[in-house]
Amino acid sequence: MLDYITSYLKSDTTPGQAGNLLWALIYILLIFLGLSVAVIAMNWLERKILAHMQVRLGPMRVGPHGLLQPIADALKLLIKEDIMPAAADPWVFWMAPILVVITAFTVFIVVPFGPTHAVTDMNIGVLFMLGVSSLSVLGIVMAGWASNSHYPLMGALRSSAQMVSYEIAMGLAVVSAVLMTSLNQTGTGTLSMIGIVQAQQAQHIWFVFKFFPLGLIAFGIFAIAMVAETNRAPFDLPEAESELTAGFHTEYSGFRWSLFFLAEYSAMIAVSSIAVTLWLGGWMRPFPTWLSGETWDLVFSLIPGLTFLLLAAIAFLGVIRMPKHPYFRVQTIGLAGFGAVLGLIGLILLLPPVRDRIQDIFWFSAKVALSMYMYIWYRGTFPRYRFDQLMRVGWKVLLPLGIGVLILTAMAGVWL
Amino acid sequence: MQPVATTFFFYFLAGLTVLSGVLVITRKNPVHSALALIVALLGQAALYLMLYAPFVAGVQIILYAGGIMVLFLFVIMLVNIERSQREEQFNKQWIEGIAAAITLGALFVLVFAKSKSLFPDRAIPMPEGSNTQQVAVLLYGNYMFAFEIASLLLLVAIIGAVVMAKKRI
Amino acid sequence: MIDRTMIDRTVTDRTTTDQAMTDRTSHLELEQHDKTFLDSNELIINMGPQHPATHGVLRVILKLDGEKVLGTECVIGYLHRGVEKIAEHRTYSMFNPYVDRMDYVAAVSNGLGYCEAVEKLLNVEAPPRARYIRVILTELNRLASHMLWLGTHALDIGAITPLFYTFRDREEVLKIFEKYCGARLTTHAFRIGGCLYETYEGFEREVKKFLDFVTPKINEYEELLTTNRIWVERTKGVGKISAKECVALGVTGPVLRASGVKWDLRKAQPYAAYADFDFEIPTGQNGDTYDRYLVRMQEMRQSLRIIDQAVGKIPEGPIIAKVPKVMKPAVGEIYHSIEAPKGELGYFIVSDGSTQPYRVRVRPPSFVNLQALDMMVRGALVADVIAVIGTLDIVLGEVDR
Fold first, then answer.
1. What are the backbone angles phi and psi of residue C68, rounded to the nearest 5°?
2. What is the pLDDT of residue C39?
3. Closest residue, chain A, to C62 (C-alpha)
4. What is the pLDDT of residues B97-123, one digit of tens each?
5. In terms of CA atoms, which chain A residue is nearest residue C45?
6. Peptide bond into C282 cis (omega under 30)
7. Are residue B73 and residue B139 in the same domain, yes or no?
8. What's the sign of the alpha-carbon dihedral B70, B71, B72, B73?
9. Cα separation of A139 and A136, whole Å?
């Protein structure tokens, strides 16, 4: 038994490849927990960042600086009355949010947080992720249908038409990146997520910079398509409040709605993971070849700990600026505790044994977090596309561009 | 890597696929039929995985379950359902249906029995290289012409659909 | 166990029956056929009166072919308060506060129009100092109204951030109003014959500071929207109306000017002290939503210009003319119109010699502009209807009175 547990630790592969079920389950649990924390954090971050862009403060009351707001929201949604329209189809109504959540969470099996830090490494990793996320379209169609009402149905059909259209552009961009993996010494490309990052490592370049500007354009196409795929601004007409056709989740309330919400943020993180893995070098630290060597490695390995210490410093700054009034005593103590926890994590991350192990996960998460910030930034800045303009962009702009980039990448790969 | 409980998974997946197939033809609600078909297709994708063909499985999920079935659902949801449900159901001919099924089953059993010698041995040699590579070599190498003809056919179908559905060009 | 029959009964009682809907929309030439909505292509959809994007309680019945709009009908009157009838039972100065509540977004202009109309009826003229103060406040008011318009219009189209920026800057204008007359929104700033309140201590300094504060903000709004590709695509070519159609319908204000007609009552029939100031009338060319946006942005800048010229040059003197305490104008009628932020705001007052007017008829710009909605959205998509309602800049308080 003990051998079973420790044999994996000595091996150099992912649990799936090592065939170790226990460790696979542990990894799955960790990913599940991490994803839940990430979704909750995203909720808070979105409200705060959007608010600060709009010259206001966002949630401030529930917990210090609104830190407990997501928990309050989750509690509220859980205790809300579960309404089902009388004429709705109960099976399909019940199945739709479950399908969307299952597909949103299943894709994380192949997401590589490090060379061995994935649940498994399928050799069709990217294909698997694209395929399972295309199953979520079915959940949306089912949700619109099950509500048995005119407006959600039209909204669901529009959402799903948009998602299917932009999947094509996403696929073309992904193929361009996969083409670049075949320019290794061995001459064969790979669809496996870990293999793609290792290809970038072997070629000493992030694919976003390869064959400049082709890699950049492919990344740009994927970045736009992934925003449209997850139905976020500026492509969120089917769910906008000021339009006539309300979104597909109109008839869902309480816990079921929170499942859709959870799935939306998980899908955002999933497609961001694809983008980070394919173009932004996955778990590699910035400048692996320009700034190489022992000292630079040391400097970059200190950054995770320093980041958390910086966050702790910001929290303590907030503590100092809290009003000195008895009403705020609990909040001040709470914020100070939160800052202390962050500081503790930062100090732990500075210890040498932890430092080496945490590198990959930190850089991967940092890049995904950057992508999340861009999502929130887009939401705060851009107006919405009208539906026909949205489809025009997907079919008439991104698709030809994607095909062009693919052809040029193939030519560049053969002749350069 | 050691396969895990292969026999159990095979029977489970095959049974799931067959059961979903039966549900497709017995449900009254067309949307339920479409959803059962999706389950059948996913079961089939898992069976492909068991045959060590992950690329085909991935493509099956993306195209069939995620693309074609979405299109099926669109059409089902946009067509006037009440009118179609008021029409005659086919269930009055079940005697003829069972007779035809028995005949077909007997034909299959006969063919299998007569040609047992033509089937290969149990152990099929695994192909070299990954499934993706093998499919690519075949598709873009040996069967390139057929591939191009098929894509041209699909293009014609797309143009035809657009021409028929558009109100004016 | 839910009682379905009771639900069905209450739902049918409260909403419009099919027959009533048919009577009301018969002019839209609908075909009577089997009402399975997904089967036929034509659809009647009801927008509002409770809707986040109709800027008030406006109900719009749309006849759609799929997504295209075939015809519209506006149902108004949800905010009708009988203001004109009330006027017949109030004295002229008592009616002054009611006037603010019509276009509640730009209340100062309403007051200006009414006071000037009654002054014409009484044959008095406001002293120069009052006229300058009136111009400054009215132009600040125009700025506030356009800022609100920009925020809500951008919000309807999907840009959620400019709303907060414009409201934040509008706060500064409202602060000045509050310091001047005590109220932010329904100001009741002017009286018949001039102004009641003297400018407060530091008024000119604050207005100058405000001008320096707001000019870079307006540049910020333009930076956010004017060259934004998505904004341009959502607004260019949407809701076109030609100059001839505008004149035929009686549409005035920025809508008329964006179609190319250079008509502004401040220059054509100068009132208050506008003849003393040097400013331009921005006009557009295509008459679409994008041009209306540009025209209103330019108008904001021109307002700043006027305020800049006026402040610092306010002449000394009395702020209110000699007006009898009991106002009994001679028998007669008068129509006086001003250029409100939304268009030509006119007051037609009939006096029968008593202290109360015989009839006050208000010509609200939003009411007349709303007629153009049907013409502007024919053939457009549903999402454009919301953009066009926003660009017409209607205030239901004015439309319904």
1. -85, 145
2. 44
3. A244
4. 889 999 999 999 988 888 777 776 666
5. A244
6. no
7. no
8. positive
9. 5
CB contact under 8 A, A164 and B67: yes
Phi-psi region of A296 (alpha: psi -120 to 50; beta: other; left: phi over 0): alpha
pLDDT digits (tens, 9 = 90+) for A323-348: 888 888 888 898 999 999 999 999 98
pTM for this model (two decimals): 0.85
Whether domain C83-400 has CATH 1.10.645.10: yes
H-type alpha helices, A280-328 = 294-320
Please return the burial class of B161, using the count of CB atoms within 10 Å of its CB with bins 0-12, 13-18 and 19+.
exposed
Q: Are residues A246 and A142 in the same domain?
A: yes
Nearest CA in chain C to B76: C38
Mean pLDDT of A395-411: 93
Q: Is C158 on the interface with A (CB under 8 A)?
A: yes
Q: Which residues of A touch B158 (CB under 8 A)?
A: none
Q: What is the average per-residue pLDDT within B34-40?
A: 93
Q: What is the CA radius of gyration of chain C?
A: 23
- Nearest chain C residue to A51, by CA: C161
C357, C117 contact by CB (below 8 A): no
Output the pLDDT for position C9.
47
Report the candidate in C375, C374, C377 with the shortest Cα–Cα distance to residue C385.
C377
CA distance to partner chain B, nearest, from residue C26 (Å) = 26
Q: What is the pLDDT of residues C104-124, one digit of tens each?
A: 888 999 999 999 999 998 888
Give the containing element (helix H, strand E) for B19: helix B6-26
Measured between beta carbons, which residues in chain B are less than 8 angstroms from residue A4?
Answer: none
Contact between C161 and A383 using a beta-carbon 8 Å cutoff: no
Omega of the bond leading into A85 within 30 degrees of 0 (cis)? no
Domain that holds residue B147: 129-169
Q: Does C174 have pLDDT greater than 90?
A: yes
Contact: A386, C386; criterion CB under 8 Å: no
How many pairs of residues across B and C have Cβ atoms under 8 Å apart?
8
Cα-flanking dihedrals φ and ψ of residue A112, to 5°? -90, 115
Q: Which domain holds residue A185?
A: 2-284+357-415
